[in-house]
Amino acid sequence: MCCDNRSDIELSRESLKMEEKPSEIWKKVMYFSKRKNITKKWWAEFKKVWHIAGPAIITSVSVFSMDLVTAAFVGQLGNIELAAVSEVQNVLIGFVHGIMLGLGSALETLCGQAVGAGEFNMLGIYLQRSWIISIVTALLLTPAYIFSSKILKLLHQDPNISDLAGKYAVWIIPEIFASALNYPTEKFLQAQSKVWFMAFSSMLTLAFHVLLNWIFVTKLGMGLVGAAIAGNISYWILVVAKIIYIVCGWFPEAWTGFSFLAFKSLTKFLKLSIASAVMLCLEVWYYTAVILIVGGLKNAAIAVDSISICMNLQVWTLMVALGFSVSASVRVSNELGAGNPKAAKFTVAVNVLTSAILGVVFSVIILATKSQFPRMFSKQQNVISETSKLGVILALTIFISSIQPVLHGVAIGAGWQFVVAIVNFVCYYGLGLPIGAILGYKFNLGVQGVWSAMLGGSLLQTIILFVIIGRTNWHKETLQAEERVRTFGGQMEIQQGS
């Protein structure tokens, strides 16, 4: 009897196990199915991100290399000529192009969200409005080029170098107007993910720029005038190629010709453009201010050389991050405009994580070669030694810089320019620079003190942006994107203007 009872119990247990197995198997199937779906989702978004980021990186590197090519050819003329061109590039052009890029970045928000909402008919109008604002700004900034020699002398730069830099600045005035047209045109194309044309055209222009410099500077011996002519031609070729691409029928929905509607709602458009310009200029000018602070330290020549070497490396890695910044801006604005809050939130994660991984790789390389990489730029032992000491700070800066521009791209895509401008001002100019000056001068920590404070400001800004993004109601952002497209124009405005 006992045996019968045991056998019955065992049979009941076996039957229970048989009943549980299908449910356990189903749970496993659902688990692996979800993982597979998430993997597919990540892979699909990863491809979309690289489709935009890859060409954007090529474009950034190519355009940045044009200034390096100019400096390389001018360097053959003499140290004074090279110093003059470097001053114009780092101080004047950096200042002006920061403003132009910022003004053009308003299109990243408007065009991107309009594309997501299917309002392609307004893209050409937005582009023309941005052109108008940028060209007027270029006219207002032209005196800065004309009086650049006096401006540089006021900044206590060498008089001989300042005089030569002033002449060169006047010769490259046409570049101001090229940049006024270039940045809005870029944003128009990026918003529609038409980025491969920009990549190919920028690479071809870079090759042509090398040829022009060889002809005018080396072959014809025209010196700085030849370098200026080569630069003017190259930048205008770059701009004209993009404009021809736009107006010659490749964008039948987005470009319907020049219209007087471009002069409508300019005030609202200008407000967003100014907010974008302030946000980006506060970022760009931060690094210029750091160099100016370092320039007043003891052994300033060595300090400036060491920090310049580090910043050159940082700029090259920054080109990669800027590609993901463009990708984040385009993907976020497109998805918000299309009313897809979850997709907008998801693409933020993919862009940030991908760029951060590359930032880790670059940082590890710097740490592994901190005693060797300075030798690529200088043979002076004191400069090599000082630069090596900055290796750890440089690695941390590169990592932060791999994330920071992507968060800026998210902010631009969502239209948070004004908020981020305030964050930038507080973190950089309220904390980073003053603390850097105190550490560098008061506590005699030199370059390391100045840069540590700069890094602290960047880190604080990054943390604040993460908090803002983490607390964002993305559904609310889609509603605001819809309202923004309506406010800045839509089908009704087209009908009223026709």
TrEMBL record:
Gene, per the UniProt record: DTX33_4
Family: Belongs to the multi antimicrobial extrusion (MATE) (TC 2.A.66.1) family.
One MF term in the entry's GO annotations: antiporter activity
Compartments in which it is found: Membrane
Any one biological process term the GO annotation gives: xenobiotic detoxification by transmembrane export across the plasma membrane
A GO cellular component annotation in the UniProt record: membrane
Superkingdom of the source species: Eukaryota
Keyword tRNA-binding: no
Membrane topology per record: Multi-pass membrane protein
Membrane-crossing residue ranges in chain numbering: 49-74, 131-152, 195-217, 224-252, 272-297, 309-328, 348-369, 390-412, 418-439, 451-469
Main location: membrane
Keywords: Membrane, Transmembrane, Transmembrane helix
Protein name: Protein DETOXIFICATION
Pfam families reported for this sequence: MatE
